[in-house]
Design goal:
By secondary structure, the protein is of the alpha/beta class. The chain is built from nine helices and eight strands. An eight-stranded parallel β-sheet has the order 1-2-3-4-5-6-7-8.
Length: about 260
């Protein structure tokens, strides 16, 4: 199993991060992708990757990283943030498997014009460094698609925390994107999304937790954790009437192909 989106750098994991990583290994989680969301925390994401590379004992999942400017944090945006981001990738492009988490959110108070400008500038950076992107969306899929077309972006990536119908999913798949599938599908009320993921080709899907956010059904109000990835896997396999082993194998293969590992 691979958790394609987990914010292990967040302070919520400071008390027990090492123990969680050991538990993940025991559960069969081989890799975790940690996407940076704001300049102030990029160094923490980089440190996690260094620790993963140097860690011989106890065993833990391999940590992969990316950096980006998430729309939630653009109230702290500085004019040189994009320059610093570009410098990180120019200095060591192989260190990062993607660029992100980036995106556009239609439900926050950050001006849409600023979100779009920063998003498109990051698309151009990803294009320059031949990196797929990790995209956050909320009430913004059509706007994001317009930006992808306007920037002629062709590196693909992940539409993180996918929710929506078959037509919406196909628009992103046609542009080379995988869909990140997480806790949303554990809620029976998410009927459209559950039906959609049951119909999509398995080759288009990735597993994710978005921990410490996006709690699964039954864990509302609690810190989400990458150790709950097996529950997402189990639910996805059940919705698709496929074996847990097959879904785990193919989604892991999808991850490695997308991020060229």
């Amino acid at each position: 199993m691979i958790d394609s989106h987990c914010h292990l750098d967040f302070a919520a994991f400071d008390p027990d991060r090492s123990a969680i990583l050991q538990q993940c290994h025991t559960l069969g989680i081989s890799d975790i992708l940690v996407p940076g969301v704001q300049r102030a925390t990029w160094s923490k994401v980089q440190t996690l990757a260094k620790q993963s590379l140097s860690s011989l004992s106890p065993p833990q999942p391999q940590i992969h990283i990316s950096l980006g400017l998430h729309p939630y944090f653009l109230d702290n945006y500085n004019d040189d943030d994009l320059e610093v981001l570009a410098q990180c990738y120019a200095e060591d492009p192989q260190r990062y498997v993607a660029l992100g988490e980036i995106g556009i959110d239609g439900a926050i108070n950050i001006p849409l014009a600023l979100q779009t400008e920063v998003f498109e500038q990051q698309l151009l950076l990803a294009q320059k460094f031949n990196k797929p992107v990790i995209i956050h969306h909320r009430k913004s899929q059509s706007v994001i698609l317009q930006s992808l077309k306007r920037c002629q972006f062709d590196q693909g990536g992940v539409l993180h925390a996918f929710s929506g119908n078959l037509q919406q999913a196909q628009q992103f798949i046609d542009r080379g994107f995988k869909l990140g599938i997480g806790g949303t599908i554990t809620y029976p009320r998410a009927q459209t999304t559950r039906l959609t993921v049951s119909q999509l080709p398995l080759s288009s899907l990735l597993l994710e937790t978005d921990a410490p956010d996006m709690p699964l059904q039954g864990f509302q109000g609690q810190r989400n954790c990458p150790t709950r990835l097996p529950l997402v896997l189990q639910q996805l396999a059940q919705l698709r009437n496929e074996s847990i082993e097959e879904v785990a194998h193919v989604t892991s293969q999808n991850f490695r192909e997308l991020f060229r590992l």
